[in-house]
Amino acid sequence: MSSRLSVRTVVAIGIGAALTFVLMRFVAIPSGVPNTNLNLGIAVLTIFAAIFGPVAGFLIGFIGHTLTDLTFGFGIWWSWVIADAIYGLLIGLFSRFYKIEKGGFGVKNAIVFNVVQIAANFLVWAALAPTLDIVIYQEPADKVYLQGLVAGSLNSAVVLILGTILAFAYSRTRASSGSLKKE
């Protein structure tokens, strides 16, 4: 295996980061908890990480969230940028189990996909991001853990619904192995 990224993966990183940024920045729906939104970009990050793997997932999360923070004008909130990057990495680490790219994404794969994404969402948003907020920015624990729980819950729901639909739809465009038979 080559240690270099394929052209296809590099292009996917650019497209994935751009889509994640656009959705996070311009389709953010306030949750009612300060600085915490319903984020449709998480579904794009998840699908791209599930298809292109951990390096792509990490970079898409990192670049997409950094661009979002830069355009909001309050500076880069590194704790949340790191959380999105680690989330993409975690989703990508399990990509071989989803079989999205191979056209084999079925109900069992959807269950694995959603168990992984829910666990990853809660790990990074309810644990990592709030802890980094406290360590880096000296934020109050009750505030940031509430934000993390809300973000983890909303992200899990978005990926459960939109991400699963996108995974099924994309997988159906791919030929499953053994699907071509000689007549």
Report on the structure:
With 183 residues, this protein is mostly helical. The chain has one domain: Arp2/3 complex 21 kDa subunit ARPC3 (Orthogonal Bundle). The chain has a two-stranded antiparallel ribbon. Strand 1 and strand 2 form a beta hairpin. Helix 2 packs across helix 7. It is globular and about 50 Å long. The model has no long low-confidence stretch (mean pLDDT 94).
Shape field: globular
Helix content: over 70%
Could you tell me the CATH topology label: Arp2/3 complex 21 kDa subunit ARPC3
State the domain count: 1
Radius of gyration, CA atoms, in whole angstroms: 17 Å
User: How many E-type strands?
Assistant: 2
Main beta sheet: strand number and arrangement?
Answer: 2 strands, antiparallel
Fraction in beta strands: under 5%
Mean pLDDT: 94
| Element order: H for helix, E for strand | HEEHHHHHH
| Largest sheet, spatial ordering of strands | 1-2
> In CATH terms, what is the architecture?
Orthogonal Bundle
Low-confidence spans: pLDDT under 50, at least 5 residues? Answer: none
